[in-house]
Specification:
By secondary structure, this protein is of the alpha/beta class. The chain is built from two helices and four strands, in the order E-H-E-H-E-E.
Length: 93
């Protein structure tokens, strides 16, 4: 039996979730879905999630501890719905 420190399976493997939540409860719920194996894509406005600067930034500006904890395991993109032309812009997470 092989032992691995990285768990890559889960009952939601193969499921894609679009996360448009903010504050605590929504990001926590989608964090649990990511923990269960779902691919979670967090959609943020150009200014970023309100929780992005919550807690002291650990290593990078705009990446507070609360943001890092609630959004671990997720992909992240920026979407500006106020512009006529849409630009797909991945943001670091």
């Amino acid at each position: 039996m092989q032992s691995s420190s990285v768990y890559t399976g889960g009952m939601l493997t193969g499921i894609r979730i679009v996360d448009m939540t903010t504050i605590v409860f929504g990001p926590y719920a989608t964090e649990v879905l990511a923990d269960l194996g779902a691919e979670v894509i967090k959609v943020e406005a150009p200014g970023g999630d309100m929780m992005r600067n919550s807690g002291k930034p650990v290593h990078t500006e705009g990446m507070g501890a609360n943001h890092m904890m609630l959004n671990r395991g997720k992909k992240s993109v920026v979407l500006d719905l106020k512009k006529k032309k849409m630009i797909w812009s991945p943001c670091g997470n």
